[in-house]
């Protein structure tokens, strides 16, 4: 216990210099956790919301379907395999039929995707039940708030919609906007109209059970997921969420520069303190060696003094950081309305997520880097002679 007692006494005796180093290091500690928590919170919300409102427990895509290539959409439909049909009958999968089309609000042409969905489905969290029970002569349509803003359509409005059936013949009919849903997932809103799948199948003159993709239930047993067939390709959540996962990685990498700057300033201050301490305390080291303390224990003493800066920074950071992090996690951070056009699912209030991996990972990072930086200047003590130290020399 001699080394820890001496180390604590020495850094406490350094006074303001110690607490300045500790405070700067604590700022780096709290900032890393706070910023990384914001990024992880944004990513967690986006992934949970996309699973809830669009992706379910995975999807089966028609082999030619590519959501980033509209030219593939019109040919991307087929009848389900027997295994997929079985899942649909057990309500473990829901078909979605997609085609391209256009609407003409106020005489303007607006290209869009027409998506057909079962109004009674319960797999994805969209208000599709509003598509039930309308006048047989009217095609009910559901759009999102972004689509309503783009087209100027309101609930109850009629608008002419044009499409092309599987034989290549263009047709048109009026649809009625029965509901405008407020969703945070742009990929189920931007440039899209949702109508009952049976209506869309009749419009396209396709087979009664054709679809472009099938959304699997979130609680589906992975053992019951059928094998891929010639027409249908299985897309798991890792594939479907790859874009948002890549975005989180990019954001995390870009903030590494900020972390490096903050941590670098704090570590530079500690390194400078260690160098000065070794230079100014030569006689003390000589006295300790004359009293029988080995070089290894003296190196341990100086390294521990530096490492204690990291431990104290954790305590100081906890004093003001814990209330700050708790408050932001509980109340969230309001975002401007323009963030809804960011391209990913973002709520109006951002809630950071501070996981155990983030907290303990940051603590370990701070302690290890501080210990390493504290140890570097002590290499001068390896060849230190007691007589030189007592004379105030570093050999």
Summarize the structure.
With 395 residues, this protein is an alpha+beta fold. The chain has helices at 2-13, 16-55, 82-89, 145-151, 197-204, 237-240, 242-280, 282-290, 295-331, 356-375, 386-390; strands spanning 59-62, 93-103, 110-117, 139-144, 158-164, 170-181, 192-196, 213-216, 232-235, 333-334, 349-350.
User: Rg, please?
Assistant: 32 Å
Count helical runs: 11
Order of helices and strands: HHEHEEEHEEEHEEHHHHEEHH
Q: Distance N terminus to C terminus?
A: 29 Å
Largest sheet: 9 strands, mixed
Notable features of this structure?
395 residues, alpha+beta, nine-stranded mixed β-sheet, 11 helices
Give your account of this protein's structure:
By secondary structure, the protein is an alpha+beta fold. 48% of the residues lie in helices and 16% in strands. The protein has 11 helices and 11 strands. A hairpin with a 6-residue loop joins strand 2 (93-103) and strand 3. Helix 2 (16-55) runs antiparallel to helix 7 and helix 2 packs antiparallel against helix 10 (356-375).
